[in-house]
Structure formats: C-alpha cells, structure tokens
Write a structure and sequence with these properties.
Two copies of one chain form a homodimer.
Chain A lengths: L1 H9 L1 E5 L9 H5 L10 H12 L5 E8 L4 E12 L2 H4 L1 E10 L8 H15 L4 E6 L4 H6 L3 E10 L2
Parallel strand pairs in A: 4-5
Antiparallel strand pairs in A: 1-2, 2-3, 3-4
Chain lengths: ~160, ~160
C-alpha cells in the first residue's frame, strides 16, 4: 500500500505551464473552475506567448500526472509593480483548480505553495488572492489570513 | 459661488501618471494610503519605466490640481491575461487614494471610473478590487458589487 501511494506521489510532477499542455487537458481542467469555452490551438498559442512575454512576472504552474499524461492541477500568479511599500511588489494568485478526480492529495496546497514561493523569490512583500468563504479554511492552512473584501464590476 | 466651484472643477485634470509627478507630491499622496517611504528620484524613474514597459496593460492615473501643481488623487489598474473566459482579460484596480484636503469632490469616483473604463476599453470581461467593508458603499456607488473575500500572506 505504501509503495503504491509513493508511486502515485512520484508520478505527480509540478512545473511551469508548457504550450503542449493544451493537449493534456489544461482547458478542460479550467472548465471545472469557471466559464471556459473551447479554445483553438492558434488562440491558445497566442495567449500562451502573450503571457510568456512577461517572463517571471506572470507564472502559471501545473501538476501533471505522468502516468496518464493529464494536467490535474493548476494556478497562476502575477507580480504587480507598485510605488507604495518603497517601490514594492505584490503577487496576485488567480485561477487555482484541482481536477475533481485528484482531490484529497494536497495538490491544491502544492500549487499555492509553489505560487507563493515564486512571489516571495521575486521580491514581493505580500501575496494576495480572492476566494469564497467556503475555501477560507483551505487558504488558512496555506498560511493566508482574511483581510478585506473583493468587489467586482462585470462588463459582460 | 457657482463660478468659483466651476473654477475648482476646471482646475482638476485627470490624466496618466508622468515621470515628473514625483515633484508634484505623488509619493506623499500614496503615503496617505499605506506605508510608503521616501523614494529617490532614480528609484522612482526606474520603477516608472518598468511599469511603462507594460504599456496599456498597467495604467496609473492621477488628478492634478493645476492651480497648486499638486497631485490630489490617484489609482492604478493592470490587465491580467487569462485562459478562462475564452482567453479573457481581467482588470485589477489597486492603490486608489484621494488627498485628505480634496475629499468630497467625487475625485475618488472619477479615478475609479477612469480605471474601469480603461479596463473595459482593453477588452476585460470584469474589473475587480479589494477594499475594507467601510469603503464598500463608495464602490457600490461606482457600480461594484461584493463578491468574495481577500486572503493575504505577508513575507515581511
């Protein structure tokens, strides 16, 4: 049993998003989070390259299950350059999702820690995110505390 | 009296941040919002240029009172490129502040509307921000609704 669990753990590789991840179910995974229509290969590549231009200022990470070749978790962080806090930087975590078939393996925690570590290594004084009250205990386990409220204005 | 009020209104110009705004009290204004140490001219210029590289993807707006030559309000918005929402974009409003001597003139509303309009014109499907419960009625007047909660992790 222990051996089998290790085998599962060993097959879950965390790394940055690659352009070939579209074929590995990346868009289908995002669909578990919010509205996400099918995206053409061309449009995916275009958006991938737009984000890649920001280099380490916009990092999307994924966990691939190398046994199935499927992306089973993802999240992103971008680095905002400010004038406040002595020209400080803030990390913004967005779009964290774990595949429904891969829950209970702490993959969400691995994603959030990877993104927070990235923000820290980029010199951010803080990293922030918005979530539902329901997900608050999860983020508290990741070392976050509730601060303010999120306001939104939709254009569509 | 009416003439005098118009004169005040006419002297409040809204525009994008310029590198010369440091001399016009931009940093002192930010200090009314949060921790903001004095910034050397060199460091200010460096950060200004780093942000300018993002072009319209990171817009800082200010209101200058041209009578006094002082910056009396500011706010920023940056455009996050996503894969969700059919490769959509989200605007993030940050660091909105109005000088304590210039409150009650709807300058905050002008700033927020300018930033939301910018996000809309950039093709964002939404614009979001975090604020205190105390500031919620102000943002509701600007057309925002409460959605989620903000979580934060500080590194310093």
């Amino acid at each position: 049993m222990m051996q089998s669990e290790n085998a599962v753990e060993d097959s879950l590789h965390i790394r940055k998003l690659e352009v070939t991840d579209k074929e590995k179910g990346f868009i289908e995974l995002l669909r578990q989070l919010t509205v996400c229509d099918s995206v053409s290969d061309e449009k995916f590549k275009e958006r991938f390259e737009e984000i890649a231009k920001y280099g380490d200022d916009h990092c999307i990470c994924v966990i691939e299950d190398v046994r199935s070749g499927k992306i089973v978790a993802t999240g992103s962080v971008f680095i905002e350059k400010k004038f406040v806090r002595n020209c400080g930087k803030a990390g913004h975590i967005e779009d964290v999702v774990v595949d429904s078939s891969a829950r209970g393996m702490q993959l969400g925690k691995r994603i959030v820690e990877y993104l927070a570590d990235h923000a820290h290594s980029m010199g951010c004084y803080k990293v922030i995110l918005d979530c539902t009250e329901e997900n608050r205990p999860f983020y508290e386990k990741c070392g976050f505390k509730k601060k303010e409220i999120q306001m939104v204005k939709y254009f569509v």
